[in-house]
Amino acid sequence: MSSIVDSYLAKRKELIEEDTSLRADRAKLRNLTPLEAKAEALVRQIRKHEAEEVFSFTLFLHEVPDVASNQIWSQKNESLEHPFPGMAFLTAKKTIESTRIFKIIKKMPKGALLHAHLEATVDARVLLDLALEHPNICIRSPCAIDASNMGNILPDFAPLPLAQLKELEASPSITSSYYNPGTYIPIHKARNEWPASLGNGFDDWVIRAIVINPTEAYGTHNTTVKIWDKFVSCFSVIRGLVAYEPVYRKYIRALFESCIEDGVSYAEIRMNFTPKTIVAADGAGAVDHSYFVGIFQDVVQEFKADLTAQGKGNLFHGAKLIYTVIRILSVEELKWYLDDCLELKKKFPDTLAAFDLVGPEDKMNPLIYYLEPLLEFSRTCEEQGVDLPFLFHAGETLGDGDSVDQNLYDAILLGTKRIGHAFSLVKHPALMRLCRERNICCEVCPVSNEILRLTSSMPAHPLAAMLNHGVPVALASDDPGIFSNIGISYDFFQVLVASEISGLMTLGVLARQSIEHALLGAESKAELLKVWDCQWTEYIEEILAEHTK
Amino acid sequence: MSSIVDSYLAKRKELIEEDTSLRADRAKLRNLTPLEAKAEALVRQIRKHEAEEVFSFTLFLHEVPDVASNQIWSQKNESLEHPFPGMAFLTAKKTIESTRIFKIIKKMPKGALLHAHLEATVDARVLLDLALEHPNICIRSPCAIDASNMGNILPDFAPLPLAQLKELEASPSITSSYYNPGTYIPIHKARNEWPASLGNGFDDWVIRAIVINPTEAYGTHNTTVKIWDKFVSCFSVIRGLVAYEPVYRKYIRALFESCIEDGVSYAEIRMNFTPKTIVAADGAGAVDHSYFVGIFQDVVQEFKADLTAQGKGNLFHGAKLIYTVIRILSVEELKWYLDDCLELKKKFPDTLAAFDLVGPEDKMNPLIYYLEPLLEFSRTCEEQGVDLPFLFHAGETLGDGDSVDQNLYDAILLGTKRIGHAFSLVKHPALMRLCRERNICCEVCPVSNEILRLTSSMPAHPLAAMLNHGVPVALASDDPGIFSNIGISYDFFQVLVASEISGLMTLGVLARQSIEHALLGAESKAELLKVWDCQWTEYIEEILAEHTK
């Protein structure tokens, strides 16, 4: 019998190896340095411990000769409501922050942030503080705000010329029963006169309108459609604060600060170019797209220069903009924006990186709706020798064969370099093969997908299937200012604790891969990879030193 | 430009065809009769209409030349809480029953029920009524039941010898403050003396302990681990009522009646053989496994004979038993059961069909734990020329690389003919290929998976990926007595409304496929397929006549 068992176990090992052979981490796992091997084992051990102690799950290890990771979950006790590793992010956030695994991930060099929407990349508190530095930012409401309606009214901000402020200072505030509906009130006045009877104050009211809270995601808005309504409303509040030249300058810098604080050293940021202008510094004039891209480029250069002056140049390699418009435009309108994008690319070749369409895929136009102008754009770029690829959102859906799911066909056929989300990709055998063959990277945003109710928790997310099928992946935060997942550490955490196959090396491979899929020139990319490799080596030494005392 | 667009659309069509070429319904869709084509279109039209009217979703159709099903969801209004097609089953059940789609599915010939656990196949109300026909069934409680504790106490039933009843009739009932904890009280006494102050009555209390309600599945027990605790407790209550020879006889017949009522004409039923006996008719003696299989076989034959006498022989082809034990046994204990199973197979070659292990995969032993006896069993069967295959549960988990997920490797390497659930199969490229190549059918149980919290709703279920990857699938109800999904119609419904690729023909292909994967001899299977084909033709005519007046 024992020879039969041995031969069975040999076949089993072979099958598992074949089954996982497409994974991006396999090559790395065959070539670990002794320190990397030690760090990998350490992190698996801490993860197991914290699954038990923090998330109240016990991992039983069934000893099987030559077969690793053969483990069983079972529940132990309760501290959180419904605890398990990879559980609902907004409920678990504070608990996640308390773990050693999170602290280990936080320090990791993350490579590139490839999927984030500028308007939602900065913490809500930070954004509000930036806005408060500008007393000419005003707020209005469709009616006087009181305890009965405050939960349903969204703050409507706009910067006004300083000259108008004096008069507005004299009007009754938005919370006064004498408030004149629809009139602007200076933000500081509204804030100072916010009555104590209205709960936790003006700031709390504003921030609640910018971020999604657990009750909304898991209670009142618990479907993909409902939570998108809340999500879209957040953007409308943010825009009033941020679409103002001086705030934007500081906001972009705050984004870069949050990047380096989290170990992200390069970013490609999607910005919504649908509005043709933002408000100029004087509160009256308008600043156009070209001026705006110039601001972005200036802030990148200033930020890099400041870091270099401090001897920290390696922390930040730079950032580029991805031109996006909302997929509600008419075909004719889109043509204007595609021309605009091409002009900007010529003017800012190193800052403008790609083109994309955004907005709720399942409510707005599919890619095929814009087929002709998109094909035309590709041809024009080719003819003019301009390297301005598509980076389409596609498949951010639970649908099977609906328009959003079918966007994946068009994204790939239109030659997208990466795919935003690709949540439904695992349903498509031919498309997974094309992603592997053409090295099309999927920008997967775990926390975003969970809060937007595509998945109820991380263990139910298709990422594990994507990795096992060898689909190129980079992890990203999407809209961290709204989802409260600033940096990429929270997303990395959810991925690490929800799989027994993935480990620290997997995260390392994904981080490095994010650089490989960045839209950088060959030389620039090689330089960034070299820096990352050094950072990684130091990082492994550092966590071993810290956690194996 | 138009030639570029045309060539694009041709490539697109080709890619979609390639991407869906592995689906089991492709051959059928190329060879529809005119009536089938009409029925397919009709059902898609009703589904679209009901998505809007019943589930408050609007389907927008984007017209694309030569591309079908290019549709978009968006929300319209609210009647249910969080409504969408494929939403939480227990919340939507009554709504589902009100739809035309459900009525159409209900009448469909479903083929074989390949995955259901005997102890949980009959409606709780029906079971309780069967038990109430036997006054010697008694109930006990660890303490007197009152309003404060009734939600936490499980009814503990057992049949007793009639001779003991008189004395027990005189004792205070379980709801009396004089109740002597742990003593048995006749069921009718407990029922008659149930005080009005304890809510909806004795029957309601018992049924609540047998079925999972929406509050439990989606509120208090909303994790895979917690809901399993409730699920397991349901079985303990059921067992006290059903593990009694005369009840079991009627219970098995009730199961078959529910099968034909739902268009299921053949069943392979898993039974838990871990307990070595059930209680005999006199309430004192014990009936062993062999006697029990004899009862099952008798009921099958009686039921068939009765139907044949009524000229309805085609409605029911028969049923077989799958021998299952709980995967908590020691290796030594398992050997006893494997021997027992083999002996029973020799005695009842046409009724005993296969062997399986059951119980929460993530808390109990993985298949590899029993490797030696399972390999030994296969060898013995082969040596003795006995056809007694494995039909293992495997991969009923959200885990990635844990023991439960790895059960898939062992199920396949041990030669399983079908896989129970295979929920995590889509994570495994090599295993999906093996399932295709070896024609291993996955018994997918959509409602079960959703209630047991592996998926939050049907659109998030991996079934769509399994179908697109060409994995052989049969749909089943698992534990309909506990999940309230009697028949397979509810499961078929959830599948149909959660995909734009699948249609009525897909369900027909899955139903026919369930017969092809049944453990029937070649002749018997051919006969059943022939009957199904006739029923299908009649069915198509019938629904067209009924819905196109």
Give a structural overview.
Two copies of one chain form a homodimer. With 549 residues, chain A is α/β, with parallel strands linked by helices. Chain A has a domain at 135-210. In chain A, 49% of the residues lie in helices and 12% in strands. Chain A contains 23 helices and 15 strands. Chain A has helices at 2-19, 26-30, 34-53, 89-97, 100-106, 124-132, 165-169, 187-192, 202-210, 214-220, 224-242, 245-261, 289-309, 331-347, 371-384, 403-413, 429-438, 446-451, 463-468, 480-483, 489-497, 504-516, 522-547, and strands spanning 57-61, 71-75, 111-113, 137-140, 156-159, 185-186, 264-272, 277-279, 286-288, 318-326, 352-358, 393-394, 418-421, 441-444, 473-475. In chain A, the strands form five sheets. Chain A has a four-stranded parallel β-sheet. The first copy, chain A, is globular, with a radius of gyration of 25 Å. Chain A starts with a helix and ends with a helix. The model of chain A is unreliable at 59-78 (pLDDT under 50). At the A-B interface, helix 1, strand 2, helix 11, helix 15 and helix 16 of A face helix 1, strand 2, helix 11, helix 15 and helix 16 of B. Chains A, B: It is found in: Secreted. Chains A, B: One of its GO terms (biological process) is inosine biosynthetic process.
